[in-house]
Amino acid sequence: SGILSIALAKLKNIFIQACDINPLALELAIKNAKYHKVLKNIDFQLCDFQNLKNNYDFIFSNPPYIKNDYALDKWVKNEPHNALYGGEKGWEILEKIIIFAKEKQCKILACEFGFDQKEILNQILNFYKFKCEFFTDYNGFDRAFVAYNLEC
Question: How many Cβ atoms from other residues are within 10 Å of residue 97's Cβ?
């Protein structure tokens, strides 16, 4: 739906580069950005994030993070497969995002993740020299992090 990019564009007058691999999701995001009058602030691209070329000050993502073999509720299964499943372990795409952020000299990285992935993500973030802060959802589950690149 583009909600993360749209909300940030409404809060701050900044330029945002947003991408998605799903054409229907991207089409909806563009429609929503037009509705909220922030389309001029967002460059939407149909691509995998790893194809983006620029360096970034801030990267935020709500990537797929569910294990490929995790049994989901039938209502959740209505979502596109590639929007849900993050790999054999679930956190593989998150690791790619962390590496990408490091390579792009990103100062701040923020991501949502699976409730059982805090430990491994903390290890990966520390390995790549990010100082991280974790946040819980209303049910007390670890669900998001903000990480600061210690080398920028």
Answer: 21
Nearest Cα neighbor of 132 from 66, 103, 124, 60 is: 124
DSSP secondary structure letter of residue 76 = G
- Cβ–Cβ < 8 Å for 63, 86: yes
What pairs with residue 133 in β-bridges? 146
Q: What tokens were used for 105?
A: 């000299």
Tokens of 14: 């900044």
The reply to whether the predicted model has a pTM over 0.85 is yes
Burial (CB < 10 A; 0-12, 13-18, 19+), residue 123, is: exposed
Query: Do 65 and 93 contact (CB within 8 A), yes or no?
Result: yes
DSSP β-ladder status, 16-20 and 42-46: parallel
Phi/psi of residue 142, each to 5°? -65, 125
Q: Taking a C-beta distance cutoff of 8 angstroms, is the pair 16, 41 a contact?
A: yes
Of residues 127, 122, 134, 124, the one with CA closest to residue 151: 127
- Give per-residue pLDDT as tens, 58-87: 999 999 998 988 888 877 767 777 888 899
